[in-house]
Amino acid sequence: MSTENVAASGFGAETGDRRSRFLSSLASTGTIFVLLLILWVWITILNPTFAEPGPFLAYLKRSAPLVILAAGAYFVLVSGNFDLSVGSLVTVMVVVAARVIDNEPSRMWPVIALLLAIGVIVGFVNGFISTVLRVPSFITTLGMLLILNGAVFLWTGGAPRGALSENFRSIGRQGIDGIPWIEQLPWSVIIMVVIGVASVFLMRADFGRQLLATGDNERAARLSGVRVDRVRILAFVLSGVLAAVAGILLAGFGGVSAQVGRGLEFDAITACVLGGVVLGGGRGSVVAAMAGALTLEALFTWLNLQGVSGALEDTVQGVIIIAAVAFAAYRLRGAR
Q1: What pLDDT digit, counting tens, does each position of 298-326 carry?
Q2: What does residue 15 show for φ and ψ, rounded to 5 degrees?
Q3: Which of these, 55, 68, 123, 273, has the minimum number of CB atoms within 10 Å of its CB?
Q4: Which string of DSSP letters, residue by residue, matches 167-189?
Q5: What are the structural domains of the chain?
Q6: Per-residue model confidence as pLDDT tens digits over 225-275
Q7: What is the model's pTM?
């Protein structure tokens, strides 16, 4: 075979590999945006006011806590771990905020700092135990979930005490007023967008590349100089901080309840899986994971418009997880 033919053959193989990688990436992340658009259109057909600025922003405001939780879950999942403690951590945020603020507006910022610090501490403990002590993250964070739930019950006796100040609640309920056409831009939507942009930049930085490499092949990542333990601990810390932010928003949106974070850890994981994040680590897009949360919220809105009982939401999530994981496994097997 001539040199030209060999070069052409090599170029063709490289082009084919590049095309295959592009199509695989498109299949794993692009599908969620198509599904989200279809749901938005379908909801608009059933309820034409959904497409108006006010109702659509209300949907985004309602979705913001889950979108933020999904971003946090993404960092942990893509590193090859799980974090099942975020739902109970959200509950801790709400209960602690109500008890410490006790309707005193001047305590808002110190309490917000306290909540973020709690998120950092819980995330660090989860990461340290999972990475340094080598306890499987599923067991570690399941134990943390039980610890936090028990602490909340012990502190409140099942009935949260205290009250949230109006300026604290305004973070989740209010926004910037007087904006033409949309009237009000919710703070929760602004926070959601800022976290989304920051997450994208973080994943494009060295940390993101190291995180993906760690989730894909821990041994190879270590050999290439990645400080695997530090990267994974930081992923858990990010998850804890974002759970704290979601808790602050939910406290403003829904008020004080000892059940406010119940099941949110599974909602966040479902959103990530729906967005194409591969359980086991190394593959997935943070934007697609956040889009998965928007899709999940849109799906529940659609089910509500169809008159389907809210009790079926858990069933829907279970079907989504099984179907998405099965599809991902099939796609990865076909790529080999």
Answers
A1: 988 888 888 776 667 778 777 877 877 77
A2: -65, -40
A3: 55
A4: HHHHHHH-EEEEETTTEEEEHHH
A5: 24-176+185-335 (1.10.3470.10)
A6: 889 999 999 999 999 999 999 999 998 877 677 778 888 998 899 899 888
A7: 0.87
